[in-house]
Amino acid sequence: MNQSDKVTNSPKSFEVFPIIISKMKKDKRLTPADLTRLEDLFGDRVQKALELVASKGIMKFSFTPSGVERWVVSGHEKDYIVIENSFCSCKDFLFTALLRREAPSCYHLLAREIADLTDSFEEVKVEDNLYSSYMENWLE
């Protein structure tokens, strides 16, 4: 196998990220090896994510009585809605992860995954009748 075959056959970061997250969830922990693998994919975004988790910047909104859950992460400019290992409403996710595929996600999405794994988030209960106004605010 020549060098170009290795490059084209190696998994892309956006393919590896869900695998790492699945392993962490299965093991129910974040190991030093997991952190190293994440740093290989995310670079300095890992440190930003860990700082966000430490500052309690992740919230899980549980709407009642429907049981709908929405995760929200505090960013530098505003709060962003995050969907488990697949989407964040921030510009970095749009440009870096989706359009250019330079990273598997933004640090907000990574922080959400780490917060969920380590139970380091605030849970907020909200009545269903407020769902639309919350979503409008998060997606503006």
Shape: globular
The total beta strand count reads 5
What's the number of domains?
Answer: 1
Number of helical elements:
7
**Structure classification:** alpha+beta
Please give a structural write-up.
The longest helix has 15 residues, at 13-27. It is globular, with a radius of gyration of 16 Å. It has helices spanning 3-9, 13-27, 32-42, 45-54, 91-99, 107-118, 131-139; strands spanning 58-64, 69-74, 79-83, 87-88, 122-127. Strands 4-3-2-1-5 form a 5-stranded mixed beta sheet, sandwiched between helices. The protein is of the alpha+beta class and 140 residues long. It has 7 helices and 5 strands. It is 52% helix and 19% strand. It starts with a helix and ends with a helix. The chain has one domain (3-139).
Quick synopsis:
With 140 residues, the protein is α+β, with helices and mostly antiparallel strands.
